[in-house]
Each structure stands twice: as C-alpha cells, then as structure tokens.
C-alpha cells in the first residue's frame, strides 16, 4: 500500500477512478449516497427508477441511525457501514445503467464484482466496519432522503468531509485485495491441515 | 412476594444496559484491541486497528454509539431460585427496557418480521429479545448480561454435524474453514465462539455463550482450554487480518463452550463476535439493589 493518502471529491469521473490501485488509501469529500439491501431490491428487482442522480456517485452501504427533525428532514445520531457482500449482484447494473463510480462498504465484495468494476471503471472502497462514531463525525449533513417508507434502508444523500480512511479493495484494473488474501489463506489452510 | 417495583427495577436496568453496552465497550476488549494494534505488522492492518482505537475514543468523548448496528437484543440471565420475581416477569421487564431505550435514545430499530421484512417495533417483536436462562439453586439474586449482537458477525454463523471419526481434527478444520470463508465480513479481529457437543441447537447456543465471555477467559476443562489455545494460534496463521485486508491479527480470542453429547454425535457450531464486542452486565439483589459491571 502506498504511504500517500489520495484525496477525491465525489461525484467524480472515470478518469479519476482509473488512477486508483488496489491497496491505495483514500480520503473523500463532497457528496455520497447511502443505500442498502431494500433500496437495491426496489431499483433492480422491482424496476423503480431511483429519484437521485447516481452518475459519478459514491455509494455507501448504510442504514443510518437518525433523529427526525421535520418533514423529510433528519439529523445524524450514529452512521456506520454494513457488510457489502450481500449486495454484490447489483454491481454490474449500478455501473452499466447508472454510471456509479465507487461502492463503499465493509468486509469486501466477492470476486464476481471484479469484472464489472474493470469494465465500467468503478472501485470498491473498504471502510473500517464498526467505526461508526468516527464516521458520524465525517458526515457534515444529511441533505436529502428519498423512499422514507423503507426507513432506515432509504436512499440518503450526505455531505462529507475527510471521509475515511478508505482502502481501495478492488480497483478498475482487475485487482482485488480480498481475492489475494483469500488465495493466500487457502494455501495456508492446506499447510495447516497437513500437520493437524 | 412479587412486587411491581422489582419489575420496574429490572426494566430500568435493561434500558440502561442496552445503551451502555452500545457506547462503552468493556475494558478487557479495549486491552485486547490495544494489544492487537501493538502486534500487527501489516500496513492496512495497522491502519484499521488505529482507526478502531480512535473510534472507541470518539465514542467515549462524544457519548455516541461505538457501532451503528444496535444489533439484535440478546440477554443472558442467571436467576437464583429465591429471587422474588418470576422469569416470566423478568422477560417482560427486559422487553420493556429494550423498547424504552430504543425510543428514548433514540436507537436504530432493526427488528423485522422474518417473512414480510416489515419493522416490528423498537428492537422487539415476536420472540424478541432473545434470552438465555440459567437457574441457580440456593441463591436470591439475578445477573443480567446484555449483548446487542451485530448482524455482520451474526451472519457469519456456521454449524457442522461432524462425526466421531472426524475427532478434534474435524472440529479444528471446520472452525478454520469457517473463519477463512467469513473473511472481512464479520469485522475482524473479533472473538470466535465455538460450541461443541450437545445437540445441533445446543451447540449453537453454546457458541453464543462463548462469545459473551470476557475476552481471554479460559474454559475450566483443561481439554477444552487446550483446544481454545490451539485454535487461537491456528486462526491467526491464516493471514485474514483486520477487516479481511490481510495481516497478523485475525482473531482476538477463541472461546469454546462444551456439553457432553451422544456417542454418535460430534456437533461443532461457530458464532462470530465482531471487534465491537458489546457486552454489559448488572446484578440485581432481592431488595432491588442494582450493581453494574459485575461480570459472570
């Protein structure tokens, strides 16, 4: 991993995303969109168009803890990140149909995300799961919420500053940190089993 | 004699325990995380662990939750035979306390109907919260442990009905393949809880008991304690590392609980507890006196 921390503002372009390599550390500013299982299911399985522009977007796998302060208006209580692997099957559609540039969550995406990310120019950012107290301080404001009836699995728009640290887990060149770690672990298991 | 007052006291204790567990992680866990940060040598692993420690500090400073996942509410109760509130009323009090904490804080409500997926209320519902019961003869107290169990780690639960010929080797292989397969998903480095023996359902129950123990406590049976130690070493050889990004520290500890079993059975259950291993305890005496942070 490079010792230089890269800084990106979202929404962003394919050109910027192609510069990132697996293992890079990144910090993000700008706008990010919160999305989760039921939100994806509504878009792709029920065919409902999302009421927010996802082109160039950074999607965060989250169901935030919030306090309602007015009609359609929410304040943050505790916002953190959920396990990404459950949502892997939507990767290709997010890139091909909506031009999403980054998916961020915890725990990694399985290998089936590698090819869509290479093809469409997308990255997967690994965040530190469970570090929600920190993440909440990096979210400046909840600017918009759509599909409130899915609470807390709505579509959220957050304004963020110094969002991270994020590690590029899968880049747009066919590399995955998670794939490499799994391959090495499986070899190690063979060694261990031989001496049990 | 049963008094409504005692029920109110248990409800207050449950409400307090739920929020407290979410905000202030136990000292044994803090020590284990700090030790992991010292030991880890990989660059991403060190970055993850320093971020975890920073997050715990921010949660303390801002009195915020450590993790946004307020979990599924699980309690362990040890009820003395002379404790003057029936377990049926203890259950009502735990449920009411969970609801009150969720509404008053407010906490994210995670409980849904398992088919319709519609939210069922303030972190309660049909058969929620989940309570593990133990009954203690010749005692008049109540011990309550609250474990808000995060779903990222709960989804990484595994059961295998090994056969006697698989032996201890089969147990080890199943735990190892489960944790490698889980990768970064359950927020490593955490506590691997293993339940062995009993029946299929009881092995999983024991695995949950195992994750709820203070970090690093040993099983009193020397055969089981030896297996805990061996598995801890082997799991950390896999290189999965913090958040699955590769490194030396894959697990903080491996805890095993066991039960005697049928001669043809060799069940192995794995229940993972994330690094944010939330846990809080209270003791309630027969007159309603409450003492927090009394581990059991």
Structure description:
The complex is a heterodimer of chains A (196) and B (296). Chain A has 196 residues and is of the alpha/beta class. Chain A has a single domain (5-195), classed as fumarase, CATH 3.20.130. Chain A is built from six helices and nine strands. Chain A has helices spanning 14-18, 37-45, 91-98, 114-120, 132-138, 177-195, and strands spanning 5-10, 25-35, 58-61, 65-70, 73-78, 102-105, 123-126, 139-146, 155-170. Chain A has a five-stranded mixed barrel with strand order 2-3-6-7-9. The longest helix of chain A has 19 residues, at 177-195. Chain B is of the alpha+beta class and 296 residues long. Chain B folds into two domains: 4-22 and 66-150 and 278-292, 60s Ribosomal Protein L30, Chain: A; 152-273, 60s Ribosomal Protein L30, Chain: A (2-Layer Sandwich), CATH 3.30.1330. Helices cover 40% and strands 21% of the residues of chain B. Chain B is built from eight helices and nine strands. In chain B, strands 2-1-3-8-9 form a five-stranded mixed β-sheet. In chain B, strand 1 (72-80), helix 4 (87-104) and strand 2 (130-136) form a beta-alpha-beta unit. In chain B, helix 1 (4-23) crosses helix 4 (87-104). The longest helix of chain B is centred in the N-terminal third of the chain and has 20 residues, at 4-23. The mean pLDDT of chain B is 96. The chains are: A alpha/beta (196), B alpha+beta (296). The interface between A and B is large, with 50 and 53 residues.
């Amino acid at each position: 991993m490079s010792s230089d921390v890269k800084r990106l503002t979202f929404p962003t372009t394919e050109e910027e995303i192609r510069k990132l390599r697996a293992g890079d550390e990144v910090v993000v500013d700008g706008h990010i969109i919160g999305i989760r299982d039921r939100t994806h299911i509504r878009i792709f399985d029920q065919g409902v168009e999302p009421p927010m522009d996802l082109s160039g977007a950074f999607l965060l796998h989250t169901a935030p803890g919030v306090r309602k302060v007015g009609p359609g208006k929410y304040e943050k209580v505790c916002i953190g990140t959920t396990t990404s692997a459950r949502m892997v099957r939507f990767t290709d559609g997010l890139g091909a149909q909506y031009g999403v540039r980054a998916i961020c969550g915890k725990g990694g995406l399985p290998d089936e995300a590698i090819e869509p990310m290479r093809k469409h120019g997308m990255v997967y950012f690994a965040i530190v799961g469970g570090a929600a107290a920190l993440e909440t301080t990096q979210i400046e404001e909840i600017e918009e919420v759509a599909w409130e009836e899915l609470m807390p699995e709505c579509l959220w728009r957050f304004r963020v500053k110094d969002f991270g640290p994020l590690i590029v887990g899968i880049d747009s060149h066919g590399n995955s940190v998670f794939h490499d770690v799994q391959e090495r672990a499986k070899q190690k298991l063979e060694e261990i089993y031989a001496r049990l | 004699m049963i008094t409504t007052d005692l029920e109110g006291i248990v409800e207050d204790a449950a409400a307090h325990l739920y929020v407290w567990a979410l905000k202030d992680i136990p000292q044994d866990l803090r020590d284990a995380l700090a030790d992991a940060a010292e030991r880890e040598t990989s660059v991403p692993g060190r970055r993850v662990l320093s971020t975890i420690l920073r997050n715990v500090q921010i949660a303390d400073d801002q009195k915020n939750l450590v993790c946004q996942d307020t979990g599924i509410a699980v309690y362990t109760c040890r009820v003395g035979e002379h404790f003057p509130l029936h377990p049926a009323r203890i259950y009502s009090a735990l449920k009411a306390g969970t609801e009150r904490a969720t509404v008053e804080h407010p906490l994210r409500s995670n409980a849904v109907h398992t088919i319709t997926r519609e939210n069922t209320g303030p972190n309660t519902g049909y058969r929620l919260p989940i309570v593990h019961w133990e009954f203690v003869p010749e005692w008049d107290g109540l011990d309550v442990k609250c474990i808000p169990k995060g779903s990222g780690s709960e989804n990484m639960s595994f059961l295998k009905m090994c056969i006697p010929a698989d032996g201890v080797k089969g147990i080890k292989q199943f735990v190892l393949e489960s944790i490698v397969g889980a990768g970064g998903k359950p927020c490593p480095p955490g506590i691997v809880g293993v339940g062995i023996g009993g029946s299929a359902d009881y092995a999983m129950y024991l695995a949950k008991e195992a994750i709820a123990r203070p970090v690093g406590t040993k099983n009193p049976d020397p055969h089981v304690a030896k297996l805990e130690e061996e598995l801890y070493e082997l799991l950390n050889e896999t290189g999965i590392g913090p958040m699955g990004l590769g490194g030396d520290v894959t697990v903080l500890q491996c805890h095993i609980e066991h039960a005697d079993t049928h001669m043809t059975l060799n069940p192995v259950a794995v229940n993972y507890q994330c690094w944010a291993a939330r846990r809080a305890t209270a003791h309630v005496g027969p007159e309603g006196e409450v003492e927090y942070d009394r581990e059991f």
